[in-house]
Amino acid sequence: MSKKRAAITGVGGYVPDYILTNAELERMVDTTDAWIQSRTGIKERRILKGEGLATSDMGVAAVQCLLNSKNLQPTDIDLLICATVTPDMTFPATANIIADKLGCAQIPSFDIAAACSGFLYALSTATAFVETGNYRRVVVVGADKMSSIVDYEDRATCIIFGDGAGAVLLEPTNDNHIGIADTILRSDGSGRVYLHQKAGGSLKPPTYATVAAREHYVFQDGQPVFKFAVKNMADIAEEIMQRNHLTGNDIAWLVPHQANKRIIDATARRMGLSDEKVMLNIQKFGNTTAATIPLCLWEWEQHLHKHDNIILTAFGGGFTWAAVYLKWAYESNHLKTAG
Fold first, then answer.
1. Beta strands 5-14 and 163-173: pairing type?
2. 83 vs 294: CA distance, rounded Å
3. 150 vs 141: CA distance, rounded Å
4. Splitting the chain (339 residues) into consecutive groups of 10 residues, what average pLDDT does each group show?
5. Considering Cα of 247, then 248, then 254, then 257, what sign does the dihedral take?
6. In terms of C-beta density within 10 A (0-12 exposed, 13-18 middle, 19 or more buried), how is residue 249 classed?
7. Cα 333 to Cα 101, 135, 326, distances in angstroms
8. How many whole angstroms separate alpha carbon 148 and alpha carbon 154?
9. Which entry of 22, 281, 287, 296 is annotated as an active-site residue?
10. Is 104 one of the catalytic residues?
11. CA dihedral 291, 150, 280, 224 (to 10 degrees)
12. Which entry of 22, 82, 257, 296 is annotated as an active-site residue?
């Protein structure tokens, strides 16, 4: 008997309406559109505006988009996992809040925090739950309101990040020609010195002093992070290909975390892929952290075909990095636009 697999059977996404352009950032910090595009590939990013709006609201919108595309109700969900580094609150889990707002509060739900690799960590976790046979419909959400922890006086970080959410539905299949075939997850906590939020945790609880020192925002030492990301995102993508006897010719799509266009290009070259096989939305959304990969799948859904070989790969603060190899499970005629 073939092993039960988890397959992505639906996708959804959401990005806020407000567009923060490079031209607007030029008026906020000492930077230029040309510099931002040459270093990152980003032209604009979406920002969630409005009193009382949080990560969970974007997560709800992405899941509702997914459910609508599948003609499902929130009560059809068996388990919900949210990957985020910008939870609504320290506790309860943002997944709990999303489930409550959707109207399926009795289901199990929890968060995973693995920075920009969070969606792949959550996807791997969800896959294991489906493979047990105990859960038939598992929703994985990647959502981050990065504008809530970005210092718009710090030109090193404020140009990079945006807000958004994406969601996928995992369901079981006995067809070994589709579904999640392999995952690799890695971490190196020594990297925390290069990319972190200085205050707000148990190590350095919030005080008037930490707020005044602007320590509740993202801190990034760009060069070490860039070097580590270039090497490890490419390494892990190549490793999962070798492990599954794949070449660049076998791959239909690379779905990379959208952190930096130069990192994405280096990963694609290492895999032997042309630009036409690489999903990109960094130019219009920036780095939405846990949301980048599911947002790509949502935007490109109509271009995906059953049995396509797809590699997902990410690198994030911590450090964390990950890769997933999957075979796409369905044909889609859904057309959508973002925002």
1. antiparallel
2. 11
3. 21
4. 86 98 97 96 98 97 98 98 98 98 96 98 98 96 98 96 98 96 97 95 97 96 91 96 98 97 96 97 98 98 97 96 98 62
5. positive
6. exposed
7. 29, 27, 20
8. 14
9. 287
10. no
11. -110
12. 257
- Both structure tokens of 281: 């939305």
Query: Of 327, 338, 262, nearest to 300 (Cα)?
Result: 338
Q: Which two tokens stand for residue 142?
A: 């990647």
pTM of the model: 0.96
Those residues with Cβ within 8 angstroms of residue 336's Cβ, 6 or more apart along the chain or in another chain: 13, 298, 299, 301, 302
HEC readout, the chain: CCCCEEEEEEEEEECCCEEEEHHHHHCCCCCCHHHHHHHHCCCEEEECCCCCCCHHHHHHHHHHHHHHHHCCCHHHCCEEEEECCCCCCCCCCHHHHHHHHHCCCCCCEEEECCHHHHHHHHHHHHHHHHHCCCCCCEEEEEEEEHHHCCCCCCCCCCCCECEEEEEEEEEEECCCCCEEEEEEEEECHHHHHCEEECCCCCCCCCCHHHHHCCCCCEEECHHHHHHHHHHHHHHHHHHHHHHCCCCHHHCCEEEECCCCHHHHHHHHHHHCCCHHHECCCHHHHCECHHHHHHHHHHHHHHHCCCCCEEEEEEEECCCEEEEEEEECCCCCCCCCCCC
233 and 116 in contact (C-beta within 8 Å)? no
Radius of gyration of the chain (CA): 19
**Distance between CA atoms of residues 150 and 264, nearest Å:** 23
Q: Report phi then psi at 277, rounded to 5.
A: -100, 10
Q: How far apart are CA 5 and CA 257, in angstroms?
A: 24
The half-sphere exposure of 185 on its side-chain side, counting CA atoms within 13 A, is 13
Q: Identity (one letter) of the amino acid at 75?
A: T
Residues 184, 187: Cα–Cα separation, whole Å? 10
The pLDDT value recorded for residue 2 is: 60
Q: Show the tokens assigned to 295.
A: 């947002």
User: Of the listed 116, 158, 232, 260, which one is catalytic?
Assistant: 116
Q: Is 287 a catalytic residue?
A: yes
Residue 257 annotated in active site: yes
